């Protein structure tokens, strides 16, 4: 197995990426790991980490795609960026997977336009895994496709199901659709139509899921259009962040509270893990012909390590082949 | 001024509603207050509260619309329900406002089908006021209209603006639209089209607002379709609820944490107010010909009191007349 790791464009810089990658390689059987980015910088980090592994290669890239770049334009113009170079290697079959914590838009565009979609997959979807209170939920589409058809929602469900089987080791993952009420018939036209298609499918479809249950539900996969998914995920992130910051501030606002804060510190820290994206590290762009994983922009080495482990499992378990065969089952061969 | 208060269908029962109503009447100039519901029960509560006010009347209603009832059907069939009877009185001009903590669907249906819409208003919208960390935000549509046009979004903006002027005492409230990124061009087709219309309007439109900023932004009004609005509001509610419960649980899980919890109790309590719907108590259904306010199902007397106060201000400040004249300005007279 050969995997490509993008060391560019992450909020915390290349060091955390390289460190996480090196740690993952120690834990998983990876024949070759290619670190894409600034050669000088990567060499320096590897020497800081005292890594001497002939199976870790460096792919020098001179251009950086920024978050502010228009994604489709950037991947056409910045040919020497890590995202473009790695995507091309994937496309040419020279590697098995690519993980990046850089611009989401660029990874999405490169995944679709360079790596390419699985036959019959209309659009690739961005996934996110929410740890939750009881059990984790894979949410897709998390923001790749703003305007979608009911049919495309069923494709998200099929792809999410294939991924959930591997990630959660379940035979028949529970699939639900994001809506404004739990009963059938609640929702906008898109949801109502998609509900019917999902119900008629052979998936383990369990119905609507309300946004208020996002941290406390037993669905394995939650499907939605990319606009609604993004609203959901960003409000989870925003509310959790705002509340935890406010709590911190309040606990520092008096002498009495400060003493109390010392005593409850560990417990409050454990609350954070419920929302800790680092647990799953990264999530796949589902629907591409090869594994493309996207980590959070602010990933640290733990998140990168876990993300690479997820990707290796994803590749070893042939998730893409499974999606491909499900698509063929549904739509027939080209 | 004569206002109608629905004492039926609230989660905590009639007592909290009657208590809140009586308290509001002491604070605001209300000529007549009509309590709609079970006469025996209301009489009992009034005597418990030792209220003897000849300007508080009782309107006996024998039927209850439940949350599980199909709203449009229920308001046609349950003629002796508080929602239907009060809406008819409003329509006939026998009262100035109606507030209910019962079935949202029924209040919406009655507001639209019985009370009726302001001329040129395509659809009435449900509003919610989120207190937030910095300043409150009026969100609409909060779930009344699942599939909307860009034009309707601009109507929400006009109506929300008229309400914000009164609620926040501002001359030119800041209006934003819910989207997946802050820059123009981000979002689904609906948002992109509505953005153009809002930008071309004479409203103080400040652009897109991301869901992650929902508790920490300086917009006065946030517009969106009812599906996205509902996802946003329920995820705010759900995440906040899940997190605060989890914190409580964690703080009770060890002896050390319990002592700490005692010391930080007041501070944690103050965090809750950031999300406390009771501060504004209730929010209007915007677009109806008369004031129709909807309180949270689990409202206590404080929420009811504040809700009635908001409604009295809404009526005294002629918000409906302002919306009506803005609609005429925009679309001309019938």
Shape of chain A: globular
Radius of gyration of chain A: 20 Å
Oligomer: homodimer
Write the H/E string of chain A, N to C.
Answer: EHEHEHHEHEEHEHEEHHEEHH
Q: What integer is the average pLDDT of chain A?
A: 93
The portion of residues assigned to helices of chain A is: 40-55%
Structural class of chain A: alpha/beta
Helical segment count of chain A: 11
How many strand segments of chain A?
Answer: 11
Low-confidence stretches of chain A: none
Distance between the termini of chain A: 29 Å
| Main sheet: strands, sense, barrel of chain A | 11 strands, mixed
Please list the strands of the largest sheet of chain A in the order they lie side by side: 3-2-1-4-11-10-5-6-9-7-8
Our estimate of the beta-strand percent of chain A is 15-25%
The pair of chains with the biggest contact is: A-B, 56 and 56 residues
